[in-house]
UniProtKB/TrEMBL annotation:
One of its GO terms (biological process) is methylation. Keywords: Methyltransferase, Transferase. This is FAD-dependent thymidylate synthase. It holds the Pfam family Thy1. Its EC number is 2.1.1.148. Gene3D superfamilies: 3.30.1360.170. NCBIfam families: thyX.
Length: 227
């Protein structure tokens, strides 16, 4: 299953292990018990675990995604992997040291450019004027066009890909592909942070796609873990 995001991006569900029942049985093993199917008492147990912040049972279920996102989104997403070993994350990303895959960039429409917020050092405010938005899109496209020419020139002249990539344009907007495998707890931590109304719009869209893919797999757990 795949959900398209932004202009060229997507989130794809690759694989998963477990469901709400695996959360329950991971908790019940303390008492040498096991459920064969989810019962009302099991639902109560999941509610208790989430309410009391007993997170280890939620680490026995995992989800694997393929994500295609602009670097500004991917690097923000990466923060949830760094320093989060207890939540069991894995991350593997396409490397331009070894390959010269096509360069794609996130290009906002003229109406998508946002102003600086009035009372904050981060985030966005209202949309800019159509005139400014159109100029921003045109400037970005010019940079991308020139950068691609320079990158292709470097490759044609036998410069190593690991150095030629320095010429790739629009670093923050360039798309990258990566696999993200994480425990249910880790996924829900990411969702709680990036579904928030004050998070960056672009990563909100990726979080919404992750939520839509995970919800059918762990309906009870997500109901309790997503604030």
């Amino acid at each position: 299953m795949k959900i398209n995001v932004l202009d060229k991006g997507y989130v794809r569900l690759v694989d998963h292990m477990g469901g709400d029942l695996s959360v329950v049985n991971s908790a019940r093993v303390s008492y040498a018990k096991e459920s064969k199917e989810l019962t009302p008492n099991d639902v109560k147990l999941i509610k208790f675990l989430a309410r009391e912040d007993h997170m280890s049972p939620f680490r026995h279920a995992t989800i694997q995604f393929e994500v295609y996102a602009p670097l500004m989104v991917a690097r923000q997403h990466w923060k949830y992997v760094v320093g989060s070993d207890h939540t069991m994350d894995a991350w593997n990303e396409a490397s331009r040291r070894y390959i010269t895959i096509d360069v794609e960039n996130y290009v906002p429409n003229p109406t998508d450019w946002r102003s600086k917020p009035e009372n904050s050092k981060q985030g966005s405010g209202e949309p800019v004027t159509n005139t400014i938005g159109l100029e921003a899109t045109q400037r970005l496209l010019r940079q991308i066009e020139q950068g691609l020419k320079d990158y292709e020139w470097a490759l044609e002249n036998n410069i190593a890909p690991e150095q030629a990539r320095l010429l790739i344009p629009s670093a923050y907007g360039m798309y990258t592909a990566y696999y993200w495998t994480a425990s249910l707890q880790s996924v829900c931590h990411f969702l709680n942070q990036r579904l928030a109304h004050d998070s960056q719009y672009e990563i909100q869209q990726y979080a919404a796609a992750v939520y839509e893919l995970v919800k059918p797999l762990f309906p009870v757990s997500l109901e309790e873990l997503i604030k």
